[in-house]
């Protein structure tokens, strides 16, 4: 089956991961493993994989299992993998997504901007180097959420990155297009590709290049990124006999955002360490939480008006050899039957500007908004005003 057909076969309770290297579609449930204790989870996954020769376990890790949101992994009945969905998918038409009935910002944008101001002052009070604050958009449809169509459009939009759709407890679905690799393991080779520091893409090429230059030159973004790259390198170091950490971040692009990224590579010290164990050890990175973790988590809990659930967790798979690939679950939405919640966050350091942070989260929402066919001007008006409005 070619990649385009795999994507066409995706159904809401499947697991799909489309990357620049491969397209993976997993269907059916031979074994389901859920839990909030990561060591117990890793042991149960290894035991399940020992029973399913050549199998994988695919699924999601939550942002914070301590809030009671469990990790959920499934050993599927069937797994199909092919090469990258690009360019095969190009022959599929873009899916039309019906106009949503309503879009609501959670919290109101000005409340988010106030939270960013508070976070900025709390950094010094709580001895934090960085914290990541998120906001959400609730989108209601007059019909079932067309998950498969949105996923197909996400794949059409992203030749790079990690487009994912994973079944969640309660019949919900996590879907998105993350630019960020938490960790992959292939044999003894480990890769992490942390992203932090952002600027929106611009339609006009000179303005777009200027945004990229400004990002590279931004002290605030370089600091935001350095805190992340250092933390990821330090978390990987105990697992690796050799670790390569570039000294400077590189510019990374998605169709809607510029980011700073550092591709960290290493060789495992102990070949028994699995991709799932590495993902658990790295998570939560300062790309989605902060430094130090415990006080960053507490500040996030104090300032965000929702439970993150699976947003800012990880989505991926592990096989019986311990190989696997986990993306950071960002630029994503948690979809129910006829509504979904989109999330976007941004790293806050001392020099962060609340209004720039609001704009940055708006730009990050555009990843899903595009795939949902939402007119970005209408959406910007809606989520910048912060009221509930029909974008139709
Ligand atoms: C937390 C998110 O993005 C992270 C990844 C890249 C850049 C980020 C930033 O510049 O703040 C964030 O750390 C998100 O999209 O919700």
TrEMBL record:
Catalysed reaction equations from the record: chorismate = isochorismate
Keywords: Isomerase
EC number: 5.4.4.2
Domain of life per record: Bacteria
Matches recorded under Gene3D superfamilies: Anthranilate synthase (3.60.120.10)
SUPFAM superfamilies in the cross-refs: ADC synthase
Pfam families documented for this protein: Chorismate_bind (PF00425)
Family indicated by similarity: Belongs to the isochorismate synthase family.
Identification of the protein by name: isochorismate synthase
